[in-house]
Amino acid sequence: MNLSGEMLIGQNNVKGINQAIYAINPANNQTLDPAYLGGTQEHVNQACTLAWQAFDIYRNKSVEERAIFLETIAENIENIGDLLIQRAMDESGLTRARLEGERGRTCGQLRLFAKTIRAGEWLDIRVDEALPNRQPVPRFDLRQQHIALGPVAVFGASNFPLAFSVAGGDTASALAAGCPVVVKAHSAHPGTSELVGKAIQQAVKQCNLPEGVFSLLYGAGNIIGSTLVEHPYIKAVGFTGSRNGGTALMKIAQNRSEPIPVYAEMSSINPVVLLPSMLENNPDTLGQAFVHSLTQGAGQFCTNPGLVIAIKSPALDIFKKSATEAVQQSMSQTMLTPGIFQAFLKSVNTIEQQNKVSLLAKGLVSPDQNQCQTHLFSVDAIDFLNNELLQSEMFGSASIIIECKNMDEAKLVIEQLEGQLTATLHMDQNDMEDAQRLLAVLERKVGRILINSWPTGVEVCDAMVHGGPYPSTSDARTTSVGTAAIFRFLRPVCYQNFPDDLLPDAIKQSNPLKLSRLINGERE
Ligand code: NAP
């Protein structure tokens, strides 16, 4: 399949007319063909209008038809074959193994959402039957189900060109919910986006769905993205990227005459706490395991362990020595884009210049382009508490060890942290009391709490929460990974006093779809 550089607006392939985007291979700074000419506001309008026209038809398709659609997308992505992996490697600098794994995750995720919607729990059916003789007032028959919110704008992420991009978690969960999707492709991987976009476009046709169920737009300079979020036919937004980008889109969405939800996943530094007994018994292995997690994928994960919190002790000195040695031996890795590399350099230089911060170690250097050199810093808790800058995300392999006088000070550090996607406790049985004290604070701060594991690597499953209080996300009540992500794109509707014939099948009295329901307060 040749790349055309065209946008996909429904079933039409359209060349833009605005400033061109070229992918850049970050390993050598070479520009990759073809040019992706940017779309116009009229292109945004066409995609959103088609999405709106498709909405009622698509959301009323049977669950089985939508599930088959998701499975067809997965199959089409797999059928692209090595071309997809090769292009994604060229555009992102990520390794073949990583991208093959990510493709598996992307297709697995689409199939998991197919299974989820077939199971029906997402409809959250509640029935309160009529009580005509209730005193002092009778009760009408009341029934609730969830329906799709409307067309969703999705912003692909740079750090997961497959699993968080055109057919990633946001798109999969929105399509599963019954929402058409308009994707704004990330400018870092336009060719990967086109290949995956065509797989979805083809699946729309194969499944006889209205063409507006899916569109893919390109554009530099934020115009396409902001016009998309402003468009009255867009009813929700999924975004993964920078805090600046996410908050800009939140403001646009709030300033519309009809404000809409923005589900933005932004920045997180994912504190890891080493509790005293665990640290005392395993300082060396913990140091090595930490650096292994820190350096995965050049640290370009939203769950990268950017902060280690521990109490000063001889064991902490051994941990620092072990981590320092591991960092010094860590190979440099190509970052996703020249821009992300520059942002990484700026952030580590800023931290290095902060008063009272020590640079413990730097990783190996390489003459290649856009190389992430691992950085490890340390600072006393008191100095961390007095410097807000030390809480900024350094997107890449960089982390700070916070050295505390005692557990009270460690608790103070955690209390001062902004909202996070994850927090990790390394502990054993003797640390139980300290863990309990910290948990009370951590539950308020983060979306996922881990014991004796590392935050990088996010399982796609029913129980996963990949979310957390601001600024890790814009809405702590939900998740962008796992099957619960579907609830972002649904809303409840109550049907009062309906004749049975007029009710949707999901809430008819005879329960023809055999769904699990809450009837008069009892689970059926
Ligand atoms: P980004 O700059 O936030 O861009 C993400 C997407 O949003 C792109 O499609 C971008 O369009 C669009 N966008 C950004 N600001 C916008 C605005 N004001 N109005 C409309 N659209 C807007 O993120 P990035 O390029 O992926 O990476 C930049 C930095 O973000 C990184 O250095 C890192 O610090 C952070 N980041 C964090 C995570 C995380 O998971 N925590 C993930 C990725 C990146 P264009 O493509 O046209 O620019």
From TrEMBL:
Superkingdom, natural source: Bacteria
- Sample GO molecular function, one term: 2,5-dioxovalerate dehydrogenase (NADP+) activity
Pfam families this protein is in? Answer: Aldedh
Q: Give EC number(s), comma-separated.
A: 1.2.1.26
Gene3D superfamilies (UniProt xref)? Aldehyde Dehydrogenase, Chain A, domain 1 (3.40.605.10), Aldehyde Dehydrogenase, Chain A, domain 2 (3.40.309.10)
Matching entries from CDD domains are given as: ALDH_KGSADH
Q: Which keywords does UniProt give here?
A: Oxidoreductase
Which EC class heads this enzyme's classification?
oxidoreductase
Query: Does the keyword Oxidoreductase belong to this entry?
Result: yes
Chain ranges of the Aldehyde dehydrogenase domain: 20-468
- State what protein this is by name: Alpha-ketoglutaric semialdehyde dehydrogenase
Q: Which organism is it from?
A: Acinetobacter stercoris
